[in-house]
DNA sequence: TAATGTGAAGCCTTTCACAGCA
DNA sequence: TGCTGTGAAAGGCTTCACATTA
């Protein structure tokens, strides 16, 4: 394998591969070819091989990929070998939905703390998690929490960001469109529901061209 | 203006431009240069000019863009000149969060109906919307609803998709990772929270390269 | 034989530089 | 002079074809 700059698009696909492989592993499958994995996930087989090749050579010509080995490799690439912990800030409906979402654990990701500034909510439990006052954010590092999920209203987004950055998190997943991104050194991934919903009409007939549905 | 295939990436940016312009309009601004809009939104000025140029020439050399005119143009491109209606299926925490999200209206988008299969929820009101039985999905067309938002659990995703497609919707925003996309003719945009959260660790130091935070 | 890994081609997107207009 | 609109260059990603390996 030679050096290649790794396309961010390839990184974006790794979790999909991981999910597919975990499913296969759960079914007891031992190995799979790029073609079969491609059919399963809706990618092309050369895309899958190319993506893996950015990170090394994991397969066996003539046979395919050893599923367990590949899962391990992708976990390593994504830095999910150890369980990663995140804190959620803003326990409204969206925050609750994210807290109760069961789908993180298979990846080795856990939300282990929740914060809010509403005194009525502080102290309540959601599953195993007790909602804390946002003033406690500064203690994240000590608790081994490196990531933040921001589900606060727009007005509170910027100060929540600043608090998380001050607390030393390494990355933030934000549902708020209202932050001035860029000035921080931490990676911020933003999910903006309105942005995605609003461009649906564009793809309506008379524009029947299309693309990856992201 | 000459013919150009329009990059999907440019379409993806239009709602951001629209939001910025609406904010400016609200502040009473009349016109803006590509450079100032770029600074406001965190894009580059040539990117903005290029994006607009795919759709036509909206600006005035030496002056910039007339904000109201530009808003109208982007609305037209995104097919948001008339108010677009969507139905939400699955009124759990996430569904509630989306229903209560106030940010769609400025774009000319409205969620006007909500469906669930839980008898306890049917008949309840969320804001102005009364939750209906999913069996009522087939009547969407008559009510002028062209889009669907899917916030049901994984297991129910595929059948919800089929029902929405059968009801004649033109596009679907899905929060479920579990649909076999591709076989439908309708545009599907998928938001997968776990996928986005899970790749945060990758960007953690020792991989300090970076990119657009999407 | 069956499948991987990869250089090279092709395509799409972004950036640049500047002609042209108000 | 200041800013737009756009051809052309540069850069990045995907697809292809095939040499290579088990």
Description:
The structure is a homodimer. Chain A starts with 7 loop residues before the first helix and ends in a 16-residue tail after the last helix. Chain A is built from seven helices and ten strands. Helices cover about 35% and strands about 20% of the residues of chain A. In chain A, helix 1 packs antiparallel against helix 4 and helix 2 crosses helix 3 (about 45-55). In chain A, the strands form two sheets. Chain A has a seven-stranded mixed sheet with strand order 6-7-5-4-8-9-10, with helices on both faces. The first copy, chain A, has a three-stranded antiparallel sheet with strand order 1-3-2. Chain A is of the alpha/beta class. Chain A binds a DNA duplex (22 and 22 nucleotides) through helix 1, helix 3 and strand 2.
């Amino acid at each position: 394998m030679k050096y290649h700059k790794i396309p961010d698009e390839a990184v974006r696909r790794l979790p999909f591969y991981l999910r597919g492989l975990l499913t296969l592993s759960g079914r007891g499958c031992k190995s799979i070819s790029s073609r079969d994995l491609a059919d399963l996930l809706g990618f092309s087989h050369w895309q899958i091989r190319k993506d893996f090749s950015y990170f090394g050579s994991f397969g066996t010509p003539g046979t395919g990929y050893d599923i367990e080995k590949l899962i391990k490799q992708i976990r390593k690439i994504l830095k999910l070998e150890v369980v990663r912990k995140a804190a959620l800030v803003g326990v409204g409906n969206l925050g609750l939905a994210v807290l109760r979402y069961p789908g993180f654990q298979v990846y080795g990701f856990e939300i282990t703390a929740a914060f809010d500034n509403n005194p009525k909510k502080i102290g309540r439990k959601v599953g195993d998690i007790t909602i804390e006052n946002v003033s406690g954010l500064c203690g994240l590092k000590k608790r081994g929490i490196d990531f933040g999920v921001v589900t606060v209203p727009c007005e509170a987004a910027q100060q929540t960001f600043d608090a998380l950055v001050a607390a030393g998190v390494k990355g933030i997943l934000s549902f708020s469109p209202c932050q001035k991104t860029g000035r921080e050194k931490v990676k911020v991934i933003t999910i903006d529901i309105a942005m995605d919903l609003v461009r649906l009409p564009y793809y309506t007939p008379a524009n029947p061209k299309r693309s990856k549905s992201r």
